[in-house]
Amino acid sequence: MLSVSSAGTTSRQSRFPSDSAAGAGIKEAESRSRQRQQEAEVTPDQDLPQSHSTKNMKSARRGEAGDAGSDLSEQIKAATKENHIRAENTQLMLSYQKGHITTTQYKVLLCSLYEVYKALEEELDSNASHPAVAPIYFPQELARLDSLQRDLEHFFGPDWSGKVIVPAATHRYTQRLREIGKENPELLVAHAYTRYLGDLSGGQVLGKLTQKSLGLRDREGISFFSFPGVSSPNRFKQLYRSRMNSIELTERQRAAVLEEAVSAFEYNIQVFDDLQKMLSVTTETQRDASGFPSSPIMQFTAGVCVALVTVGTGIYFL
């Protein structure tokens, strides 16, 4: 079961500057970023998800070595290119992109997204003054938790927190976010970047596909895709990248952030795959459960089906 968290969002203040201030901030950040020397290749001392291949790790290190220039945002983009493609080509995401998303698929996706953003945003809040987090901390403009709560209530009702179920991959993802929030807050930069900028980019397309596929009116149930605090997504993304590129990191920290960005995509891929398996299992169970009404296993699985709304992911990012 999930618990609702207010996380103090009502008292958050906007940190999104005016057009002139944003332009000055961007120029200043870009000037600092150009002065950086190309980072040397180092091997970070952190573990990656077991599903990471040697190829993925080499990809991150190529970006870390500066193949994409000295800007952290460009290095992350280069390091995660292959992982990004893999995430977009999971079965769940392919169905989504084709407009074949069902209410059931969307609902289980919302459940996992809620857990992920709850962990991410609580850790960002706790580390708001950290030198690596402060430049990219925009709770008023980017926070997704309240929006996800509204969407879950729309589909599950006011007692939604007692009905949702998430796969093991989602728990692994949130555990990682909690871990780095306490031990290595600078690594939160990788997860915030891949999640939020993905939401502001491809996520906007997915929002329109969701509304059309599910026949939703007045954007009810798709608050997750709306950013009322961001008047210009493109301008905001430019500002966000410049702020991120201005973060001062040691060579080892930068290497670790690049590896963590690869990890972020891998965690998301695992979540998508687990959600697809969950949907496949519940679909199969719906065909057979009526023959085993007294079986505890069948009752539990049938309960999962009900929680997903008997017939019955969101993405992230990226």
Folded structure, characterized:
- Keywords: Endoplasmic reticulum, Heme, Iron, Membrane, Metal-binding, Oxidoreductase, Transmembrane, Transmembrane helix.
- It is a single chain.
- The N terminus and C terminus are likely disordered.
- It is globular, with a radius of gyration of 20 Å.
- The chain is built from 14 helices and no strands.
- It has one domain: Up-down Bundle (Heme Oxygenase, Chain A).
- It is 62% helix and 0% strand.
- It is an all-alpha fold and 318 residues long.
Q: Which CATH architecture?
A: Up-down Bundle
Number of E strands: 0
Q: What would the principal axes of the Cα set say about the shape?
A: globular
What's the helix-strand series? HHHHHHHHHHHHHH
Distance between the termini: 27 Å
Strand fraction band? under 5%
Which assembly state applies to the chains in this document?
A: single chain
Keywords, separated by commas or semicolons:
318 residues, mainly alpha, Heme Oxygenase, Chain A, globular, disordered C terminus
